[in-house]
Amino acid sequence: MKLQGSCVLVTGGAGFIGSGLSRRALASGARVVVADNLATGFRRNVPEGALFEELDVSDPIATRALFERHRFDIVLHLAAQVSNIISHKDPWLDFRTNVGGTINVLDGVVHHRIPRLMYASSMALYGKPAASPVNEDCPLRPLSPYGVSKLAAEHMVHNTAARNDLDFELRVTSMRMFNVYGPGQSLENPYQGVASVFISNVLAGEPITLFGDGLQSRDFVYIDDVLDAWIAAVSEPRTKGLRINVGRGEESSINDLIDAVLNAFGYTRSTYSVLKKPELPGDQRSIRADTTLARDLLRWSARVGLSEGLKATIDWGKKTWNANASSS
């Protein structure tokens, strides 16, 4: 289904990835409705031209009313509680938002016979894989309430689409995203994105906190590459029913990330404070995406390397930080 001329709902559209998708959808000629409770997103992120609806998808009455007010053709479902740390402190929040919210969105999709749904899934589903890189058929053993809730919601999405009592074709796709970073990621949320957390630490002159030994490795993928993957997938009919990894396919350690951020600001570990704390529960040790499916099906691969992406993110962070400081 093409975006042009469609009415697109973006849940979580005031957040980092959701706002980027909202801008892309508008640029493609779609009408866009953004639904967000602003718990971690910001009203300023909603692009001009999009209609904003402030609501929580975990509220079934508000979500039902949202689907009654609009005739959606496509739903991009990104609304979620995404912090591993918070998920251990309040697992019910994860299940209310990530599972309950997804069920409420699915109810709207089924009741109004909306043919296209894309779900924001996560690398957290893989837990501690036996081998790396991980492809979409690897065993799913999430380590945190966050990962469990995202897995349950992904199952709900695909099980709903497979129901034999639906009187319409529901085409669903889950995008299993790895560590997304880039300009626009919140510098105010200490739980959103390790790269942006480290950058905001340095901008604020605060110590960087390292959980564990720093040898944990992650697959960092730049925001523009992630948006490219989503836009390529939404109108590709062969993505129906699939789960697709969205990563760069390369591993970088947390230590490497810290050093790169410090170097970009002219610091080293000998000149900047790095506090060490115990490893967080549910932390994945090492993970890297096998992106063969995305490459073959979407003709997509990540183009922006970590050093290039970090430079762009830090340049943006400095400008944003200075602008906020001058206006306060």
Count of helical stretches: 10
Strand percentage, roughly? 15-25%
- The rounded distance between the terminal residues' Cα atoms is 45 Å
- Structural class estimated from helices and strands: alpha/beta
The CATH class of the largest domain turns out to be: Alpha Beta
SSE blueprint and pairings:
Blueprint: E1 7-11, H1 16-27, E2 31-36, E3 51-54, H2 60-69, E4 74-77, H3 84-89, H4 91-111, E5 116-122, H5 145-161, E6 171-177, E7 179-181, H6 194-203, E8 208-211, E9 217-218, E10 220-222, H7 223-234, E11 242-246, E12 252-253, H8 254-264, E13 274-277, H9 292-298, H10 306-327
Parallel strand pairs: 1-2, 1-4, 2-3, 4-5, 5-6, 6-11, 7-10, 8-13
Antiparallel strand pairs: 9-12
Helix pairs in contact: 1-7, 2-4, 4-5, 6-8, 6-10
How would you characterize the overall build of this protein?
There is one protein chain. With 328 residues, the protein is an alpha/beta fold. It folds into two domains: 7-180 and 220-246, Rossmann fold, CATH 3.40.50.720; 182-218 and 250-287 and 304-323, UDP-galactose 4-epimerase, domain 1 (Alpha-Beta Complex). The chain is built from ten helices and 13 strands. The chain has helices at residues 16-27, 60-69, 84-89, 91-111, 145-161, 194-203, 223-234, 254-264, 292-298, 306-327, and strands at residues 7-11, 31-36, 51-54, 74-77, 116-122, 171-177, 179-181, 208-211, 217-218, 220-222, 242-246, 252-253, 274-277. The strands form four sheets. It has a seven-stranded parallel beta sheet, sandwiched between helices. Helix 5 links the parallel strand 5 (116-122) and strand 6. Helix 6 runs parallel beside helix 8 (254-264). The longest helix has 22 residues, at 306-327. It is globular and about 65 Å long.
